[in-house]
Amino acid sequence: MELSGTGIKLRQLQVFREVIRTGSERLASKLLGVTQPAISQNIRQLEEAVGFALFVREKGKMRPTDQAWELVRSVESAFTGLDRIRGEIEGIKSSDRRSLSIAAPGPFCLRLLPEVVKALRRERVFHRVRVRSANYQEIAEMVHDGRSDIAISRLPIDVRRFDYVPVAKAVNVCLFGKDHRFSKLDIVRVEDLVDEALVDIDPQFSAHQMNVNALRFMGNEPDIAVEYDAHGHDAGFVSAGIGVSITNSVIATEYRHFGLQTRLFEPGASYHYVVLWQRGRALNPSMQRAVQLISDCMQAEGRD
C-alpha cells in the first residue's frame, strides 16, 4: 500500500518504526520475520522517498537523526490508529463490546473519570476505556480527527466542528492548605494575595495574566514560587505548603483527596464545562450512557 502521491509505502513506515523501537535492523528483522537485507532495503527506499537521512550509521549501529525522531512521532500516531481499527474489527467480528475513548484534562483522572469508568464497567457498557489527557486545544483535535469518541472540555468550542451537552459550571476559587489564614475568609480577593507565595499557571494562560496584572496594578510584584504548564499540576505544590493557587471550582473538586480548602476568589470568571463529540455523529446508546454518567458524576460531586 502506497501513500498517495508520496512514493512512501506503508511497509516502509512499519520497518522504520520497528528499527526505531528496537534500535537495530537485526532485531527489527527478527520481530517482523524478514531478512536483515530486506530491512535495510526498506529503510533506504524510505530515505529516498522522504528526501533526507533517517539514520547515521556508526560502527554497525544506527543512530536516528533529528528528522527521524520528528517523523516517528507521526508514524507512531498513525499506527496507533491502525491498531485501534484492527481491534475494533476483531471486536465486531466476535460481537465483543467495543471500547470507548475519552479525552479530558489531566485533573479529571483523579476522581471524575475513575468514577465514570467504574460505573461503565459495573453496567457492562464498555469492555475497555481509553483515556487521553491533554490541554483543551489538543482535546478538540483528538475528537475532530477521531482519536477520541467524546471529550470533556469547556466553552468556547467550534460549533461548526462539534456537538455538545453542558455538564457543569465553575467559578474561580483560591486553593490552599487546611491551616492557611485564608480559611478564616469567606472570599479571597486579589489584595489578599499580597506577600503570598503563588503556585501559578504558565503566562500563556489568561488566568495568569488576570491575577498577575491585578497585583501589579496595586503596585505589588507577585511572588511566584512555582510556575506550571498544565491544569492539575498545582495541587501537589499547594499540598506541600509551597504556596496558594487560583483555579476553578470544577478542577478543585478533583483535588479533594489532597485535603485542601477552597474559597471563592475575586475578581473571578465563569467556566462552562461540556462533553463534546464530532458534529453530526449519532451517539449510540452506550456512548449516550457514558455522557450521562459524566454529567451525573459531576453533579453528584457538586461540580455544577
Question: Would you mind describing this structure in some detail?
Answer:
There is one protein chain. The protein is of the alpha/beta class. The strands form three sheets. Strands 3, 4, 5, 6, 7, 10, 11 and 12 form an eight-stranded mixed beta sheet that branches. It folds into two domains: 81 residues, Orthogonal Bundle (Arc Repressor Mutant, subunit A); 204 residues, 3-Layer(aba) Sandwich (D-Maltodextrin-Binding Protein, domain 2), CATH 3.40.190. It is globular. It is built from ten helices and twelve strands. Helices cover 40% and strands 23% of the residues. α1 packs across α4.
Determine the N-to-C terminus distance.
50 Å
| Beta content | 15-25%
Q: Kindly state the mean pLDDT as a whole number?
A: 86
Q: What class would the helix/strand composition place it in?
A: alpha/beta
Looking at the structure, what is the overall shape? globular
What's the architecture of the largest domain, going by CATH?
3-Layer(aba) Sandwich
CATH class of the largest domain: Alpha Beta
CATH-assigned fold name of the largest domain: D-Maltodextrin-Binding Protein, domain 2
Number of helices: 10
Query: Could you give the order of the helices and strands?
Result: HHHEEHEHEHEEEEHEHEHEEH
Number of domains: 2
- State the share of residues found in helices, binned by percent: 40-55%
Q: Give me the Rg, rounded.
A: 24 Å
Q: Please give the number of β-strands.
A: 12
Sheet of most strands: 8 strands, mixed
Which residue ranges are poorly predicted, with pLDDT under 50 across at least 5 consecutive positions?
Answer: none
